[in-house]
Design goal:
This protein is α/β, with parallel strands linked by helices. It contains nine helices and eight strands.
Length: 255
């Protein structure tokens, strides 16, 4: 299966966007699960995607204020409560996986038992509702390591983000460390300095090695792009999705 993030920088109605994604050849789509990106009606997205013939691979939970996860404050409790509701949303809409960030920036609060207990609460709800939670590699991969080494839930997985890896932790062999828990992919390219979410092959990532390493993990899920039209803002949206689909197929062939 080949999928793409449902927002790629173009301002157009979700129904039109999903139809164009399907027409380009994609099987599935991943969604941003909040009213940001001009999507106040985001809860309509699963039905619109299904009507277009697309499988909703996962949703990305909001991460504004995510560092409060590790702080004993009201904001951290509210954040956790929202994640618990998001798990229920996934179960209600038949979405198998939710993507979570664990930190933001270079200097988040130290990881600790408070945050870990909140993560465990989300995973306990996920186990009851039959939803997978995939934690994404960010600037600080030690938070990912801290959580994955301390939870034994079968619902706890790893979302590999190629662009984050290239920019922020290129010397960490993330796929060898966490490949056995690989649950989702965010594939995009950049220049190694700025996380631009470029189409694959528009940046410096060694895709042949990356996809070979993904294949070695035994991952059998979707080859999923998380790209925007950076540098291609004037390109018609249908052409952008067609090129994205060609690039995704090229990646799949390398696995």
């Amino acid at each position: 299966m080949i999928s793409i993030f449902g927002w790629s920088g173009y301002e157009l109605p979700m129904k039109e966007c999903f139809n164009l994604i399907k027409q380009a050849g994609f099987d599935g789509v991943s969604l941003w699960w909040s009213g940001e990106f001009g999507r106040p009606d985001y809860r309509d997205a699963p039905g619109l995607a299904a009507n277009a013939g697309l499988f909703v691979e996962n949703v990305h939970a909001p991460f504004e204020g995510i560092n409060n996860l590790w702080l004993d404050n009201l904001e951290g409790k509210t954040l956790t409560d929202n994640f618990l509701m998001n798990v229920d949303d996934c179960a209600e809409y038949g979405i198998p996986c939710m993507i979570l960030h664990l930190s933001n920036g270079d200097a988040p609060p130290p990881f600790n038992e408070t945050g870990l207990d909140r993560v465990k609460a989300v995973l306990e709800k996920a186990e009851r509702r039959g939803v997978n939670i995939a934690f994404e590699n960010l600037r600080r991969v030690d938070y990912l390591e801290y959580v994955l080494n301390r939870v034994d839930s079968k619902r706890a997985g790893f979302c590999y983000d190629s662009g984050h890896h290239c920019c922020w932790s290129p010397n960490d062999d993330l796929l060898s460390k966490y490949g056995s828990r690989l649950t989702a992919l965010h594939l995009h390219d950049n220049d190694g300095r700025v996380d631009k979410h470029l189409l694959p092959f528009d940046g410096i990532i060694d895709w042949r090695t990356t996809m070979k390493n993904i294949g070695k993990t035994g991952y059998a899920g979707a080859v999923s792009l998380e790209v925007v039209n950076a540098g291609r803002e004037g390109m018609p949206v249908n052409e952008f999705f067609l090129i994205a689909f060609e690039r995704a197929n090229a990646l799949k062939a390398m696995m």
